Amino acid sequence: MENKNKFIPYGCQLITDEDIEEVVKVLKSSLITQGNIVPVFEKSIADKVLASNGIAVNSATSALHISCLALGLSENDYLWTSPITFVSSANCARFCGAKVDFVDVDKDTGLMSINSLKIKLKEAEDKGKLPKILIPVHLTGASCDMEEISQLSKRYGFKIIEDASHAIGGSYKGHPVGSCKFSDICVFSFHPVKIITTAEGGLITTNDDLLAYKLKSLRSHGIEKNPQNFEFKSNLPWIYEMQELGYNYRMNDLQASLGLSQLKRLNSIINKRNFVYKSYEKEFSDLPIRLLKIPQRVESAVHLCVIQVQNKLNTSQIGLFNFLRAQNIGVQVHYSPVHLQPYYRKLGFGYGDFPNSEDYAKISLSIPVFEKMSLETFNKVVEYIKKYFTEL
């Protein structure tokens, strides 16, 4: 019999009339790209997270790529990241010709394990294979232990790029994610399923002005338009210089106007997502599942709400997944370990390399959480999850 339930995604955007009005204003203006809206958006995000610089780009993947380039990552260098992330966190190294390795996660949080990192750094130091860049991933919107990671970076000499694609609006030990208090660079994503959206888009924050200058050059073909910075002086008014190999990674003003409008709601969005998380936690307290833990002194943005199926009775991840999908509830796994993707297996990775990450992926499911989630929708998700376990 056909399922009549309306599909409930694990995440989706909310576009308000005010959002649309702001985009229409730009559409009616003289400039829809390379105007003055992107710089306003950059400054607004930087001010919100207490960073010195914001550099908007067309995706978080682009942001990760040029961040690696700006920090000098190249062939024979190593970049380390988490296996539990979207592939871009690792691919950005390959774009630069660099080598990739991974640091296992804590199964209860899904975040990079500090203990695993310490062990791996000591072994790498002995082998002369320390990373040039580490990319900790703030999975589901919860920050990694950045102060510990920062202290290790001083000891072992690596640079830090925070992959905060999930985490705008979150905080760590009272510092907004993106403040770069404990990192060189932080990267946000504004894909439609993220906390706020620019349709597609990303943004980099940094407190290093020279890095910011380099990043702005790399996102726009490596072109310099200020005559004072030309390598070959010219009095011709139309001259610009391409001083390095850059990319067309710019954000346009339509996207920035949408982001600016959504940014006004950021605090209320974060509050709603945390309320849903805590409500799920209460509803599921008697079931053989648990919500992914949020570390102490971390305020999560709750981009994803991940439950972990405990291996009791006849419960299983795939059983719950198939049951909920059959009810038109769009659960998903975030993520299949990157090191087990075919591309990375061809580079020598395989099963057993990062056991915590592999175990995490076998028990975790992302369930619906989004800004426009109604009480009726929430209750339906809870009803069917409870029904699955009562019918075992």
Provide the fold topology.
Blueprint: E1 8-9, H1 17-27, H2 37-49, E2 53-57, H3 60-70, E3 78-81, H4 88-95, E4 99-102, H5 114-127, E5 133-135, H6 146-156, E6 159-163, E7 171-172, E8 175-176, E9 185-189, E10 202-206, H7 209-218, E11 223-224, E12 241-242, H8 253-263, H9 266-283, E13 289-291, E14 298-299, E15 305-309, H10 317-326, E16 329-330, H11 342-345, H12 355-363, E17 364-367, H13 375-390
Parallel strand pairs: 1-16, 3-4, 3-5, 5-6, 6-9
Antiparallel strand pairs: 2-10, 7-8, 7-14, 9-10, 11-12, 13-15, 15-17
Please give a structural write-up.
With 392 residues, the chain is α/β, with parallel strands linked by helices. The chain has 13 helices and 17 strands. Strands 2-10-9-6-5-3-4 form a 7-stranded mixed β-sheet, sandwiched between helices. Strands 8-7-14 form a 3-stranded antiparallel β-sheet, with no helix packed on it. Strands 13-15-17 form a 3-stranded antiparallel β-sheet. Helix 4 (88-95) links the parallel strand 3 (78-81) and strand 4 (99-102). The longest helix is centred in the last third of the chain and has 18 residues, at 266-283. The two termini are 21 Å apart.
Total count of helical runs of at least 4 residues: 13
Provide mean pLDDT, rounded. 96
The percentage of residues in β strands lies in: 5-15%
SSE string, helix = H, strand = E? EHHEHEHEHEHEEEEEHEEHHEEEHEHHEH
Radius of gyration: 22 Å
**Are there runs of 5+ residues with pLDDT below 50, and where?**
none
Judging from the principal axes of the Cα atoms, what is the shape?
globular
| Class per helix and strand makeup | alpha/beta
